[in-house]
Write a structure and sequence with these properties.
The chain has helices at residues 10-21, 33-40, 50-55, 71-80, 98-109, 126-129, 139-144, 146-152, 166-193, 203-210, 219-230, 246-257, 262-274, 280-293, and strands spanning 2-6, 25-29, 45-46, 62-65, 89-92, 114-121, 132-137, 158-162. By secondary structure, the protein is an alpha/beta fold. The longest helix is centred in the middle third of the chain and has 28 residues, at 166-193. The radius of gyration is 21 Å and the shape is globular. The model has no long low-confidence stretch (mean pLDDT 95).
């Protein structure tokens, strides 16, 4: 299929590469033209403005946005709604709040433009192993775009979740669960680090061991092992943990619907605390975020 990708960051760039490997034709655009130049060398068709991008697409045009949640998406949609035609399709693959999807879909529907929301998980490893896709919107549009989803995802790695907003809602809850899992791992290694056995334990070996048939085995533990191999005591990074919004929205949703979610809530509040004081568990969580998503860490200043 032919598709345009707007946003060539950590995720968007690798998604284009995966689509190209699947023999799709990709028109790529990024605000910084050097990234567009880079992906053109790998087989994409470059566009250096939104009008040029739309011009290079054949109807019905398919445009996928991989942009930060918030104003950046609204700004692009405001421009694209006047460039696209009825029956064209816009997909928001960023970490968007599901209520914004509903508002934007209603706005685009006035122009006859179709809209899907796609929660995307996989981080910087998605190029190699595929992306987990959670998709909301009109099911007929979802079915039309299945060749795209099949290329981006591993086997059984994409799901139609329901009406507009459902994809990002499921991704929001996914990320809330992720917060809780990382918090538990971080606290566990913190207890080990504070124990009388800290000097005899190698945490990369512990993480590797726990992945051998243990009930707490996971990909996050594989990433913990990788992080500890690089820096056995995580002495090179600070325990400063950012949050990208989904945890807050998950807790907000729990409040709105009266669902008890103490683990996810406390994991979010622990991230806030990490910005005021440092603990070893926060170092582990910061290291895990760097390993799976390429997220920046605050490094310890070298003397």
């Amino acid at each position: 299929m032919q598709i345009a990708m707007i946003g060539l960051g950590r995720m968007g760039m690798n998604m284009v590469r995966r689509l190209l490997k699947g023999n799709h034709q990709v028109i790529a655009y990024n605000r910084s033209p050097n990234k567009t130049d880079e992906i053109v060398k790998q087989g994409a068709i470059g566009a250096y403005s939104l009008p040029e991008l739309v011009e290079k697409l054949s109807p019905p045009r398919v445009v996928w946005l991989m942009l930060p949640a918030g104003p950046a998406i609204d700004d692009h949609l405001d421009q694209l709604k006047d460039l696209l035609s009825a029956e064209d399709i816009l997909i928001d693959g960023g970490n968007t709040y599901y209520k914004d999807d509903i508002r934007r879909a209603e706005m685009l529907a006035k122009k006859g433009i179709q809209f899907l929301d796609a929660g995307v998980s996989g981080g910087i490893w998605g190029l190699e192993v595929g992306y987990c896709l959670m998709i909301g919107g009109d099911k007929k549009i979802y079915e039309y775009l299945e060749p795209i989803f099949k290329t981006l995802a591993p086997e059984h790695g994409y799901l139609y979740c329901g009406a507009t907003g459902a994809g990002h809602f499921v991704k929001m809850v996914h990320n809330g669960i992720e917060y809780g899992m990382m918090q538990a791992y971080g606290e566990g290694f913190h207890i080990l680090e504070a124990s009388p056995y800290a000097d005899s334990l190698h945490y990369a070996e512990v993480a590797h061991l726990w992945n051998q048939g243990s009930v707490i085995r996971s990909w996050l533990l594989e990433l913990a092992e990788a992080a500890f191999k690089k820096d056995p005591k995580l002495s090179g990074i600070r325990g400063y943990v950012e949050d990208s919004g989904e945890g807050r929205w998950t807790v907000q949703q729990a409040v709105e619907t009266g669902v008890s979610a103490p683990v996810i809530s406390l994991s979010l509040f622990s991230r806030f605390r990490s910005r005021e004081e440092e603990s070893y568990s926060d170092k582990v969580i910061a290291a895990l975020r760097r390993e799976f998503g390429g997220h920046a860490v605050v490094e310890v200043e070298k003397k």
